[in-house]
Design goal:
- The chain is 59% helix and 4% strand.
- The protein has nine helices and two strands.
- A two-stranded antiparallel ribbon has the order 1-2.
- It is elongated, with a radius of gyration of 26 Å.
- It starts with a helix and ends with a helix.
Length: 112
């Protein structure tokens, strides 16, 4: 099986690709959206991403550009709840005083 050069690597950035081409292959769309090709097929079947009716699918670059630039943050991120949850999970755990007394070094320091 032989591959075309653009199947192996892309010499354009995702934004250059959508500007240069009117229709993208599934691999190109996946590259531009930083997802796997199966995700592109899923989105086409679900109707989230338009494609040509015949196979192999071609994806309009305008639709890919729209997905690249128009995203919304989950509610948890917008409200700041995510940051608060991460902060509380990463907060240092303070030990009760009674636990500190059981540490040999601290006990020795308190005596001296």
């Amino acid at each position: 099986m032989s591959y075309r050069k653009d199947d192996l690597n892309f010499n354009l950035t995702p934004f250059q690709m959508v500007e240069k081409k009117a229709l993208l292959t599934v691999k190109q769309a996946a590259y531009c959206l930083n997802v796997c090709t199966s995700k592109i097929y899923d989105w086409v079947v679900e109707g989230k991403l338009p494609a040509t009716p015949d196979r192999p699918f071609r994806i309009p670059s305008a639709a890919v550009l729209q997905m690249m630039t128009d995203f919304s943050l989950p509610d948890e991120l917008e409200s700041g709840a995510y940051e608060e949850r991460v902060r509380s999970q990463n907060a240092p755990k303070s030990a009760p005083e009674s636990d500190l007394d059981e540490l040999p070094l601290l006990a020795w320091l308190k005596q001296n």
